[in-house]
Specification:
Layout (H helix, E strand, L loop, with lengths): L8 E7 L7 E2 L3 E8 L5 E5 L4 E3 L3 E12 L2 E11 L5 E6 L8 E2 L3 E8 L5 E4 L1 E4 L4 E12 L4 E10 L5 E6 L8 E2 L3 E8 L5 E4 L1 E4 L4 E12 L4 E10 L6 E9 L2 E8 L3 E9 L8 E6 L3 E5 L6 E10 L4 E9 L4 E3 L4 E3 L4 E4 L7 E8 L2 E6 L5 E3 L3 E4 L2 E4 L3 E11 L6 E2 L4 E7 L2
Parallel strand pairs: 2-7, 9-14, 16-21, 30-39
Antiparallel strand pairs: 1-3, 3-5, 4-6, 6-7, 8-10, 10-12, 11-13, 13-14, 15-17, 17-19, 18-20, 20-21, 22-23, 23-26, 24-25, 24-27, 27-28, 29-31, 31-34, 32-33, 32-37, 35-36, 37-38, 37-39
């Protein structure tokens, strides 16, 4: 009978979850089988079934089968890691404001593995949606293929608050503000809540489209801007060249107003019907005649310009009431020879003017115009006179026809002036 030329055949069946890199990630059972078709197996060593349940970096089992054909040995080394790695996440930076993030934040995950070693960990960036309890998840994987999950919670709000504005008062006039106005800004934030809003006072420069800006900030540090437009003019118009011209029991008041003036008011003191002062004119003209004045009474006129924003500015001028004799005003003090003027009389061809000093008539003249410029010296009745200091009275009569006819109308009136020393 021929001999057995070949050793036994040993076969291994491995039961367990195969991981990565030659590692198993669950309990491992080794089942050995052996046979020799040419002769019986006479002995075995280590060929019993074996189960590995504890993590190990490498444990070996060897099955030896002997027959007449020889000996076969098969060794199996088992690397077992059933334990996932540890894992945790770390944000790339601190919160932006009050524990809140308001723009994308990166989260990196890291871990450790005591058996097979750490292979890799993931990373992620959170950029929304807004959430007071946002969760960023990640993983770490060991060399055996076990995966651990981890997460990081954070508060995220990248949406600015809503805003609104409010002015502290209504307009001063015609849609315009004419003195400083406080503008307050308010808002709301549905996620992190409103932290603060600004306020501002506008006090110039003048502008028909002035813009006041402000901000609102939420607790996450998001800032929203807002603005309000308004018309502002705090500069009053100007009134210049205020003059009065006397007339019989009246006065002509004239002025020049700047282009931005929309209304003129003329106040007079004393006023009408015993009032301390009265508005005697309101309108847009550049002159006005005030009537009903009392001769020799002192009046003060204030001409006030008002612009569209209700800014006001005025100038005052004093006036002495007169009758038909206009200048000098009654009782006016002069230092140079004055020009005497009076109201004209219809159809008068000339006038007789008489000047009296200390009860004596010192001058008589017949001008054809309605005025007479007094000289410093003159001759009357062969005697030279000079305009001396003192109180002068003067009178005017209208003359009709030829001068030789000496036909005079009723006296226009009398007035006085004082020549100062």
């Amino acid at each position: 009978m021929p001999g057995d030329p070949t050793p036994p055949v040993v076969t291994l069946q491995v039961f367990g979850a195969v991981g990565a890199n030659g590692w198993y990630t669950s309990n491992v059972t080794l089942n050995w089988t052996y046979s020799d078709p040419e002769s019986p197996v006479t002995s075995t060593t280590g060929c019993e079934a074996a189960t590995f349940s504890g993590d190990t970096p490498g444990m070996s089992r060897t099955c030896i089968a002997v027959s007449d054909g020889g000996t076969t040995a098969m060794t199996k080394t088992v690397k077992l890691d059933k334990t996932p790695p540890t894992a945790g996440g770390t944000r790339s930076r601190g919160a932006d404001s009050n524990g809140w993030y308001n723009h994308p934040v990166a989260v990196s995950f890291s871990g450790a593995d005591a058996m097979s070693g750490l292979a890799s960990c993931s990373s992620a960036t959170y950029s929304g949606p807004d959430n007071s309890a946002a969760v960023v998840g990640g993983t770490c994987r060991d060399n055996a293929g076990n995966v651990a999950t981890a997460s990081v919670s954070l508060k995220y709000d990248a949406t600015p608050p809503s805003t609104a504005s409010a002015l502290s008062r209504s307009v001063d006039a015609n849609g315009w503000y004419n003195h400083p106005i406080l503008v307050s800004f308010g808002g709301a934030d549905a996620m992190s809540g409103l932290a603060s809003c600004s306020s501002a006072t506008y006090g110039g420069p003048d502008n028909s489209v002035a813009v006041v800006g402000g901000t609102c900030r939420d607790n996450a540090g998001n800032v929203a801007t807002a603005s309000v437009s308004l018309k502002y003019d705090a500069t009053p118009p100007s009134v210049a060249w205020v003059r009065t011209k006397p007339w019989n029991r009246s006065a002509y008041i004239s002025w020049q107003a700047s282009p931005d003036t929309r209304l003129i008011e003329v106040f007079r003191a004393p006023g009408v019907k015993g009032a301390a002062s009265s508005v005697v004119y309101r309108g847009t003209a550049s002159r006005f005649r005030d009537t009903g004045l009392v001769a020799a009474r002192k009046y003060t006129y204030m001409v006030t310009g008002i612009d569209e924003a209700a800014n006001r500015a005025g100038k005052t001028v004093e006036h002495i009431g007169t009758r038909a004799l206009l200048t000098p005003a009654p009782g006016e003090r002069v230092s140079a020879p004055p020009r005497l003027t009076w109201t004209p009389v219809k159809r008068a061809r000339y006038y007789n003017v008489q000047l009296v000093l200390r009860g004596r008539r010192v001058l008589s003249a017949w001008p054809r115009a309605r005025s007479l410029q007094l000289p410093r010296t003159w001759v009357k009745d062969g005697r030279r006179h000079r305009l001396r200091p003192g109180l002068y009275r003067w009178y005017v009569w209208p003359g009709f026809g030829g001068l030789a006819a000496s036909r005079y109308g009723a006296r226009l009136g009398g007035s006085t002036f004082v020549v100062r020393p």
